[in-house]
Design brief:
The complex is a heterodimer of chains A (192) and B (184). With 192 residues, chain A is mainly α. Chain A has 8 helices and no strands. The chains are: A mainly alpha (192), B mainly alpha (184).
């Protein structure tokens, strides 16, 4: 049975610094998924992740025991990646805070294609299109689906207003829906 | 018939739809095949998104993180030597070949060799001869004052190779430490 994160943190704070390696092992792949979806480049993602782990280590004495380590840690990963993205885009901060939740009340576009949901083709299409989601939507999407976080946890991690989180997640899902439907629709047309 | 909005369908999928709305959505789904199909599509998308395999961080990530948070524990001197074994072996081979060429002049004296290489090797040989002569002179001087063992060319070669390896490892260690500090 895996040891809870907080027990490992207690050992680290008690002086057993090498126990931090256990935290790295427990979280590196999920954190890598978030970093890679945001930065779209493995080298940049690894560098950001390394930086995030080191920051987390030195910030451990300030860790709030009420919070879960994963929420606390993914906030660091998210901030490091957001900073890296800001640098990549020449310091331009892209804000979608003006996005209105009312805009979500739109009818679904067209009927979905006839596909076998258990088919490899469908699964592969979804997995590939998930990776193509734009950075700002990919973060929220990954936190929701991969880290299995609630809206409240995503707000805590990203520091974004709740409305923005909802809008970004909604847009990410509609983008994914359109991309997969288009991809499978086109394939069906070619097959015919 | 007005179809359900994407927001309503996603809220229904997530289980976050308000109770008052829920009844209306359920009633609509019972009579609308298109919205039922859309609901199944969104459910399938969410299910596969959750099943998407995680990205794997490189095996060196943990090592690099630990080197930064617990410095000096990850690379004992033996590990450094092992890490640099490639460099060490390459240097040993180079020194071995050079030493063999210089200590056995017949090995490279061949009439078929191009003139430039022959000239270069001859120059090296001359320099080596001069160095040997100088060492012999110094050795003779030292022998006059104390008893010493005569060192042969091969012994000197082994000594030089050994010294080169130590210098190489030291420089390598220095470079690694400088890079680590720069990264911090």
């Amino acid at each position: 049975m895996p040891k809870p994160d907080q027990e490992i943190i207690r050992r680290i704070l008690a002086g057993e610094k090498r126990a931090f390696g256990e935290l790295v092992d427990r979280h590196k792949d999920k954190a890598m998924t978030l970093a890679l979806r945001m930065l779209k480049n493995r080298e940049d993602a690894e560098e950001a992740l390394q930086d995030a782990f080191v920051r987390a280590f030195y910030a451990l004495p300030r860790f709030e025991w009420k919070a879960s380590f994963s929420t606390w840690f993914y906030r660091i990963v998210y901030n490091v990646c957001a900073t890296a993205l800001g640098k990549k885009w020449g310091g331009v901060h892209i804000s979608l805070d003006e996005e209105d939740e009312q805009n979500l009340d739109v009818p679904s576009e067209g009927a979905p294609p006839d596909v076998e949901y258990e088919s490899k083709e469908f699964q592969l299409s979804v997995m590939e299109e998930v990776k193509k989601l734009p950075e700002m939507y990919a973060a929220v999407f990954t936190l929701f689906f991969v880290q299995d976080m609630s809206y409240e946890q995503i707000v805590e991690v990203t520091g974004l207003p709740p409305g923005t989180v909802k809008v970004r997640l909604f847009r990410a899902r509609t983008m994914l829906r359109s991309a997969v439907a288009k991809r499978l629709g086109i394939r069906k047309e070619i097959a015919v | 018939m007005n179809h359900l909005t994407t927001k309503e369908i996603l809220q229904y999928v997530d289980g976050t739809i308000l109770n008052g709305e829920r009844t209306r959505v359920v009633d609509h789904l019972e009579v609308c095949a298109r919205c039922r199909k859309e609901l199944e599509f969104q459910r399938a998308l969410g299910r596969i998104a959750r099943q998407t395999p995680l990205e794997t961080a490189s095996t060196q990530l943990k090592e690099r993180v630990m080197e930064r948070v617990v410095p000096g524990k990850q690379h004992p001197w033996l590990q450094k030597v092992i890490n640099n074994l490639g460099n060490v072996l390459a240097m040993a081979v180079v020194l071995g070949i050079l030493g063999y060429a210089l200590s056995t002049p017949t090995a490279w004296k061949s009439p078929e060799q191009p003139a430039v290489i022959t000239d270069v090797l001859k120059t090296y040989s001359d320099l080596y001869g001069q160095a040997q002569q100088y060492l012999k002179t110094q050795s003779a001087k030292m022998q006059s004052t104390r008893v010493s063992t005569s060192s042969t060319g091969s012994e000197r070669l082994i000594l030089l190779t050994f010294l080169s390896l130590i210098i190489l490892i030291a420089i390598d260690g220095l470079v690694v430490r400088t890079i680590m500090r720069a990264r911090l």
